[in-house]
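Two folds, back to back.
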Amino acid sequence: MNPVSDSALDAMHATATGIFTGAVKACSIGQAFDRRIRFEGDTMHRLLPDGSGPDSIDLSCYKRIFVVALGKAAGPMLDVLMERMKRRQGLRGICCTNQLPSSRNWRFRYFEGGHPLPNEDSFAAARAVLAMVKKAKKDTLIFFLISGGGSAMFDLPLDPQISLDDTIAFHQVLLASGAPIHEINTLRKHFSAVKGGRLAIAAPDAAKVSLLVPDVPLRSLDALSSGPTSPDHSTVPEVRELIERYKLEEKLPASIRAFFDREDLPESPGNKSWLPPFFPKLPWGGTLATRRATAAASMSGEDPAFRDSVYEILLSGHDLVENARILAEQEGYYVAVDNSCDDWDYADAARYLLERFHSLRATHPKLCLISGGEVTVTMDRTPGAGGRNQQFVMECALELEQHPGERLTVFSAGSDGIDGNTQSAGAIADPTTVARAHTFGFHLKSSLAAFDACPMFTALGDRVVTGPTGQNLRDLRLLMADND
């Protein structure tokens, strides 16, 4: 190999990694919080982006404040809320995340839920939260801090006879199905005692504020952590259709099959005549009675438990993509953004993005094509070590082999720092990847079929390793050319 080319490719690898890590770091929970929420004494202001605000809520109206933090960003979200909110009287809460913080607030119980599969703490956290919120009355305000990953790390079957082992198997089947996240979470919502709005229903009289850091498409916000506080517009017939379409029944444990086969399978709470997205921008101003009346009108047709609810997006994958765009432009790249392959099969997404990439670089030799969102992987066997990002990059590597001597790089990684069942965030490939892999005895097509990408990328030194980031804004893909 040409040493200059090797050096140039190494530099591109470093640049791609720097854009990714810089974009994740720029998505600061604290900064995002301060753009949307401000506390002054016992008053909480929501800052409106159109400049017409702020709306406000008076915390002194409530004798008790509960905080429920769920997901991979639960720790940072909870820390920021506690730093900003000075009110401590009657404050208690629960934090369920996949990595326990080193410093913990004595007012909170902490649970280390499993991800991507639930564990004992997932069940314990769900039971603890249900017990707490059921104590909420009209004089209670509940903050729900919800980020991605909560579907696994916070769960409890609606049927108490279903075991943890069977619940784990249920999640495994869904992850291997190839279904997009909103369809997977439709099934989870109808299975769980704490999803699909059932957590809100457990505290029907309390005022509720849900602060969100979604890892789902914004058109499917009620799929975030399977929508514990949001009305669900999916239905039991849709659940049965999904089970049939993805041929799941024969793969599910007997107890799960029996649950979904019930003629009286419980419907999730929510007005089924509505179409998503459902999130209203509810006003916070005025008296408590006025605010409840306005909220009730905005949520007309929904269960009363949802009518005194406010939902606010703090950060999303759009912020991650925008930060990556800024950093790539600073590196001198012509930048194009294409998020249209969100929720596509990884191989279809690879073909589409590579075709777009080669078309653009014909006129822009120094190019960075950015794509946000997630791809899907359908598994027909027990997987090896890998994840959707590494699978996508390996698929791209086979095509990049056709462009020897060119400075091309494909990068894909998860903003949470975890890809699939590995400790990698993702991987990087270039036109030399296939040849280098062969020298280590790896054959990409075999590794693709076995869903076993991580060993190869580990041997090549082309894994992306960040460790848990405390963030979860979906994935970032970078296709880069530097042939000036």
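---
second:
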Amino acid sequence: MKPVDLLTKTHPLLADRVRLAIMATLAAVPEPVDFNTLLASLELTKGNLASHVRRLEQAGLIEVHKEFIDRKPRTTYRCTSEGLAEVKNYLEKVETLLTPIQGG
């Protein structure tokens, strides 16, 4: 199978490096991650992060929870089971591509 064939079998939203970084961050932890934590760890602007998480939410890859704590809004994100499966699929495809390069 050609490398391009492997990569086309991954979720198209994960082709973007920022969305992939968001998904990797959320998939790595079982608890929800708040907006400010994502913002700081990924070094994005608020608008940039907001637009990417909106696309991921619309695709069903993440869940968004909004609440008020002491009259301050708090938004958290969690990877859905579908999102986790897509991240694992992406990693498997990349590993398949890299194995021949690594001599394995």
